[in-house]
Structures are given as structure tokens and as C-alpha cells.
């Protein structure tokens, strides 16, 4: 019973923490740290929520969550008789765990299919450009720049973008898209898209997904600034905004109109870096969250 209560308290803490985190102002100063903390909150909340129900369900076995589930699967007889509440908790816990895993796998499969279809389409309507080696140029007059993530990642720009941007601005945009590919930001966003599918009615989940999408763009901006002028990248973003950038295809990473001004302000007027003590404190909190739920799954209190 203590393990179930501890997991329930941890799940509640993650839910409240996520709600408060959506209004945090320091995240733009350290987007990578904020992304790690968001991931920790999401993973811990899922494990703690399902674990609380399953811990109560396997309480008659007198074991931890994981050992109790193994005993249940083996058909062992519990030390104490089951009642209706324990049975209900088992059904609810297994159902919730199955739903979370299913939506994650479904989101991943759909993203892979969308990218495969898009690669086939690009083979028909795009071409290589000797001036931009390794970049596919889309035959479209609209402004577009995005990446197709995966093992065979591709960076795509449109003819409209080539005409819209100067050489330096295009280099800045390509550095940004290359950062998405290198840091596999598609995998960062996948769990939040899956959680949005599972809980479409939750405002906190919706806000969390929007926050992580913006943080991913800021993280890519930070990496691009190592290779280009931040003002060139800001100018390119403004040009995309005024020209009306094409919508990014499903499953790809590209320019989002709703995040342009926040990114431009950050590039033009960079805020001071987050103090190291706060940075390490947030990382320590993330590690604590990520280890606490698995610990409570394995050991009984």
C-alpha cells in the first residue's frame, strides 16, 4: 500500500509540476535542459500513474510491482485473497499501460509511413542542386525549408525559398535544419505527440507539446548559431513569416509560424545564460524523476 501511495504522490507531483512548468520563463535560456526536464516529467508521470494502480492491484502478492506482475502472469496464488478493488485496479492499470504503449507505437509507425511516402514524392518532384550539396530542392514557388528525419534523413528547400533568401540566410536555415537531423528532434517530439493522442482533452498535455516544439526549434537555433550569424537566421525567419511559409508536411520538422517571433526575439536580443547552479539543479531533478518511478516499480516499500 505504501508503494502505491508513493507512486500516486509521484504522479500527482509530475502533473502539478507540468502544469507549473508550462509558464516557466527560464526555458528559453536553456532549451536543452528544459527538454530533458519535460521528457523526465512525461516518462515519470506515465510510469507512476500506471504503477500506482498496478502496485495496489498486486498488493495481495506482497511483492513489488514488477515481481507482482510476473507472479500474476505465472498464475501464482497470492498470499491474500483478491477483492473487487484489486481486480479493478489490475484492469485499469494494464489498460492504461497498454494504451500508452499503443499510442506511442502508433504515432511512431504513422510518422515512419509519412516519411517514407514523402521520400517517394520527393524523388518525383525535387532535384539536387550543385550549389547546395546534399540538399533536395523542391519545385515549388512557395517558401519552404524542412528536414525529413530518420536513418536516411534529408534536408529540403523550395525554389521559392532559394529566391527569397540570400546566400548567408540560406546557410543559416540549412544549419538549423541540419541541427534537427543531428540531434534527432523527431524522437524528442514523438512521445509528446503520442501523449496528445492518448489525452486530447488535457490542456496541460497540449501546452506541453507546444512548449517542447518551441524548445526544439530554439535548441536547433542555438546549434546553428555556432556556424552562422544569429541575425542572418533571424532575418531568414522574418522573410519566411512575411512571405507566408508553406505548411510543413506531417512527420517532418520545419518552420512553424506560431513560433517565429519568439525565436526572432531570442536571436536578436539573447537573454543571459541560465546560471550553472540552476542548470545542474534541473538536470539533477530530471535524473531523480527518471530513477524514482523505476525504483518504485522494482522495490516494495
If you had to describe this structure to a student in words, what would you say it looks like?
Residues 113-191 form the Peptidase M48 domain. GO terms for molecular function: metal ion binding; metalloendopeptidase activity. Pfam families: Peptidase_M48. The chain crosses the membrane at residues 30-47, 85-112, 280-299. Belongs to the peptidase M48 family. The protein is α+β, with helices and mostly antiparallel strands and 301 residues long. It has a domain at 127-270. It is built from 11 helices and 5 strands, in the order ααααββββαααααβαα. The protein has helices at residues 2-21, 31-57, 65-73, 84-125, 159-164, 167-182, 185-198, 203-224, 230-243, 260-268, 276-298, and strands spanning 126-129, 132-138, 145-148, 154-158, 253-254. A 5-stranded mixed beta sheet has the order 1-2-4-3-5. α2 (31-57) runs antiparallel to α4, α2 (31-57) runs antiparallel to α8 (203-224) and α6 crosses α9 (230-243). The protein is elongated. The model has no long low-confidence stretch (mean pLDDT 85).
% residues in beta strands? 5-15%
Average pLDDT, to the nearest integer? 85
Report the order of strands and helices: HHHHEEEEHHHHHEHH
Assembly annotation: single chain
Shape: elongated
- Spatially, the strands of the biggest sheet line up as 1-2-4-3-5
Instruction: Quickly give the structural class.
Output: alpha+beta
Number of helices: 11
- Fraction of residues in helix: 55-70%
Unreliable residue stretches = none
* Main sheet makeup: 5 strands, mixed
Could you tell me the radius of gyration in angstroms? 23 Å
Q: State the separation between the terminal residues, measured CA to CA.
A: 8 Å
Number of separate strands: 5
GO biological process, one term: proteolysis
Organism: Nonomuraea muscovyensis
Transmembrane segments: 30-47, 85-112, 280-299
Keywords: Hydrolase, Membrane, Metal-binding, Metalloprotease, Protease, Transmembrane, Transmembrane helix, Zinc
Amino acid at each position: 500500500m505504501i508503494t502505491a501511495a508513493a507512486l500516486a504522490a509521484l504522479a500527482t507531483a509530475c502533473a502539478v509540476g507540468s502544469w507549473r512548468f508550462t509558464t516557466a520563463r527560464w526555458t528559453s535560456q536553456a532549451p536543452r535542459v528544459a527538454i530533458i526536464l519535460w521528457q523526465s516529467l512525461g516518462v515519470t508521470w506515465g510510469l507512476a500513474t500506471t504503477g500506482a494502480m498496478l502496485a495496489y492491484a498486486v498488493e495481495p502478492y506482497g511483492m513489488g510491482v514488477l515481481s507482482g506482475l510476473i507472479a500474476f502472469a505465472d498464475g501464482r496464488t497470492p498470499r491474500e485473497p483478491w477483492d473487487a478493488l484489486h481486480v479493478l485496479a489490475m484492469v485499469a492499470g494494464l489498460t492504461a499501460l497498454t494504451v500508452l504503449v499503443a499510442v506511442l507505437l502508433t504515432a511512431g509507425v504513422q510518422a515512419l509511413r509519412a516519411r517514407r511516402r514523402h521520400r517517394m514524392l520527393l524523388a518525383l518532384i525535387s532535384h539536387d542542386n550543385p550549389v547546395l550539396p546534399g540538399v533536395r530542392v523542391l519545385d515549388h514557388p512557395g517558401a519552404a525549408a524542412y528536414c525529413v528525419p530518420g536513418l536516411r534523413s534529408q534536408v529540403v528547400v523550395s525554389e521559392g525559398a532559394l529566391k527569397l533568401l540570400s546566400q548567408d540566410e540560406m546557410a543559416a536555415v540549412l544549419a538549423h535544419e541540419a541541427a534537427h537531423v543531428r540531434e534527432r528532434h523527431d524522437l524528442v517530439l514523438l512521445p509528446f505527440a503520442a501523449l496528445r493522442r492518448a489525452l486530447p482533452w488535457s490542456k496541460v498535455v497540449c501546452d506541453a507539446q507546444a512548449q517542447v516544439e518551441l524548445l526544439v526549434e530554439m535548441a536547433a537555433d542555438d546549434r546553428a548559431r555556432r556556424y552562422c550569424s544569429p541575425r542572418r537566421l533571424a532575418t531568414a525567419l522574418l522573410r519566411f513569416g512575411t512571405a507566408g511559409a508553406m505548411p510543413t508536411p506531417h512527420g517532418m520538422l520545419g518552420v512553424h509560424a506560431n513560433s517565429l517571433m519568439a525565436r526572432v526575439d531570442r536571436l536578436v536580443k539573447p537573454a543571459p545564460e541560465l546560471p550553472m547552479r540552476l542548470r545542474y539543479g534541473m538536470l539533477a531533478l530530471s535524473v531523480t524523476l527518471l530513477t524514482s518511478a523505476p525504483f518504485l516499480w522494482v522495490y516494495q516499500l
